[in-house]
Design a protein that fits this description.
This is Sacsin/Nov domain-containing protein. Pfam families: SACS. By secondary structure, the chain is an alpha+beta fold. 22% of the residues lie in helices and 23% in strands. The termini are far apart.
Length: 287
C-alpha cells in the first residue's frame, strides 16, 4: 500500500479539536438517539449549517461505493473507504468556519441567536454514523479523527491543495477521489466547488473499536434516513433564509448519482412563495 512519506516536511498540518473530544461527542449525541437511528436530525443539522453559510443549494447523498485503498494519506484510513453519507452545499467555508469546527467547545454561534445551526456542535452530529469525518471546501481538505487512531496518532489533519504538486496529489488519490460524489471535482484541478462533509459509515469492523458509539450502520438505517428527510424537506425549506434547492441522491458502484428527490422554493421571501417537488423515485417513501 503506497502512502505519503512523513519525511521532514509532510504535506499536511495537524488540525486539532480542543476538547476531550470523544466524551464531548458522546454527550452531544445523547440528544439525537443515534442507536435507534434518529439520524434524520443529523441531516437537518447539516441543512441548517448550510443555510447559515449562505448556501443556495443543499444535497444529501448516500454514496454506496467502495473506494480504493492503494494510495491513501494514512494506512489507517483504509477502514473508512466504504459507503458514506455526504452533505454538499454550494457555499464556501470561511476562516471562522474552520475555527468553529476546531474549537467545538466555544462555538462562535452560541453568541449569535440568528444562527439556526450551531457550527461545530452541529457538525458533531455527524458522529452518529462515523468516527472519521472528511470536510472539503475550495482548496482546503480536513480529516477529523477524534480517537487519534486512523491518522497516525493525531486528532485531525489539514491539507491545502494549492500547496501540493500534482505528483503528490496522485499519491493520495484514493483519499481524495471519494470527494467526487456529484461530479465537478477533479483531483488534478485542486479545487472543490462548494463544501462537502463525507461521513463514511461504521461497519462491523470499526464499530467495536469506537469510544463514541458501537452501533453498526445498516442499509435499513440509511433507507430510513433518506425517506424521513425526503418527507420533511418540503417543510424544512420553508424555514431557510438562503437555501432554495434541497436534493437527495444515491450513488451505486456503477454509474452517476441518481436523483431521488428535489424540492425548490421560488419567491421564498414573498407572500407568493411556491414549492416545486420532484420525486423521480418513490421507493424511499415506502422503505
Amino acid at each position: 500500500m503506497a502512502t505519503v512519506a512523513a519525511a521532514h516536511h509532510p504535506p499536511w498540518r495537524r488540525f486539532e479539536q480542543k476538547e476531550e473530544f470523544t466524551d464531548r461527542i458522546r454527550n452531544t449525541l445523547q440528544d439525537y438517539n443515534c442507536e435507534s437511528w434518529g439520524a434524520g436530525g443529523v441531516a437537518q443539522e447539516f441543512l441548517a449549517n448550510a443555510d447559515d453559510a449562505g448556501a443556495n443549494r443543499f444535497a444529501l447523498i448516500y454514496d454506496g461505493r467502495t473506494h480504493g485503498t492503494a494510495n491513501l494519506l494514512f494506512p489507517g484510513l483504509a477502514e473508512w473507504q466504504g459507503p458514506a453519507l455526504c452533505f454538499f452545499n454550494d457555499a464556501k467555508f470561511k476562516k471562522g468556519d474552520w475555527a468553529a469546527i476546531s474549537e467545538v467547545g466555544i462555538s462562535q454561534k452560541r453568541e449569535d441567536d440568528s444562527k439556526i445551526g450551531r457550527f461545530g456542535l452541529g457538525a458533531l452530529t455527524g458522529y452518529c454514523c462515523t468516527d472519521v469525518i472528511h470536510i472539503v471546501s475550495e482548496s482546503t481538505f480536513v480529516i477529523l479523527d477524534p480517537h487519534g487512531s486512523y491518522l497516525d496518532g493525531g486528532p485531525g489533519i489539514e491539507l491545502d491543495f494549492e500547496e501540493q504538486e500534482k505528483a503528490q496529489m496522485s499519491k493520495i488519490y484514493d483519499t481524495l477521489s471519494p470527494l467526487d460524489v456529484l461530479g465537478g471535482f477533479e483531483v488534478e484541478k485542486k479545487h472543490f466547488p462548494g463544501t462537502l462533509f463525507r461521513l463514511p459509515l461504521r461497519t462491523e469492523d470499526t464499530a467495536p473499536k469506537s469510544r463514541i458509539l458501537k452501533h453498526v450502520v445498516q442499509q435499513e438505517n440509511v433507507d430510513r434516513l433518506l425517506s424521513d428527510f425526503i418527507r420533511k424537506a418540503k417543510d424544512m425549506i420553508l424555514f431557510t433564509k438562503h437555501v432554495e434547492t434541497v436534493e437527495v441522491y444515491v450513488r451505486s458502484e456503477d454509474g452517476p448519482p441518481s436523483l431521488l428527490a428535489r424540492v425548490k422554493i421560488h419567491g421564498a421571501h414573498s407572500h407568493n412563495a411556491a414549492l416545486r417537488i420532484e420525486l423521480p423515485s418513490r421507493n424511499y417513501l415506502n422503505p
